[in-house]
Amino acid sequence: MEHDASIAEDAVAATLFSVYPHAEEELKRYVDILASRGLEWGLMGPREGSRLWQRHIGNSLALVDPLPQGVTVADIGSGAGLPGIPLAIARPDLQITLIESLKRRAKFLELAIEELGLDDRVVVLRGRAEDVTETFDVVVCRAVAPLEKLLRWTTPLFCPGGSLLALKGESAEDEIRNASKLLKASKLKADVIELQAAPEVEGTRAIRVQRV
Ligand SMILES: C[S@@+](CC[C@H](N)C(=O)[O-])C[C@H]1O[C@@H](n2cnc3c(N)ncnc32)[C@H](O)[C@@H]1O
Questions:
Q1: Which of 98, 86, 92, 93 has the alpha carbon at shortest distance from 71?
Q2: CA 18–ligand 1 middle distance (angstroms)
Q3: Which residue's alpha carbon is at the smallest distance from atom 4 of ligand 1?
Q4: By C-alpha distance, which of 127, 100, 132, 131 is closest to 113?
Q5: Is the CB of 104 under 6 A from ligand 1?
Q6: Beta-sheet strands, E only, within 13-118
Q7: Are 147 and 179 in contact (CB under 8 A)?
Q8: CA geometry: angle 86, 192, 95, nearest 5 deg
Q9: Fold exhibited by the domain 2-211
Q10: Residue 70, Cβ neighbours under 10 Å: how many?
Q11: Per-residue pLDDT tens digits for 116-139
């Protein structure tokens, strides 16, 4: 069983490298950081070490397609750098701010971007998303909060002209329904987009929020 999982991981990694050849070396180095310091510091659960490529890198890179060229991006609740760091590696045109409230996680992010040589266009902002006063073209996030809460935190960060892309699973439609009053009051619209980082890599979904 474990053997099968590691073959599947190798296959996902190989497919990702075929689609993002320029990113292969840096993605490998980032996965090494997650598998070593990420586990040691408790940022990744002990079971995550054997499924980093599919569950974390492939999932994060699903956002490559909907991100316009050359935009500024905020990854809120970045944790160990997901999805922000894989996106920064695959898309050298992006300027990315990783926003993370916990000191230890922010330290992990600072070390990782320095070691990966991304510090010229990736910055770490330690703090709560709702306290940030900067604005961005796109806000991205994964596994941080339900849509209604995300809207309360992030609308000032991406409005008036930007958008929010929140990686979500099966709950996406329910979350949009639950946030419908707030969406209407804020003159925002939300839809669900189906995404896939590369052929044969498991697909995912995101809620996209924009001005009406
Ligand atoms: C479940 S983790 C997800 C981390 C990462 N996005 C991922 O997908 O692996 C949620 C992260 O959001 C951070 N967080 C929670 N509320 C936040 C807020 N209001 N502002 C910034 N970060 C926040 C937590 O400290 C944590 O690192």
A1: 93
A2: 30
A3: 79
A4: 100
A5: no
A6: 72-76, 95-100
A7: yes
A8: 30
A9: Rossmann fold (3.40.50)
A10: 10
A11: 999 999 999 999 999 999 999 999
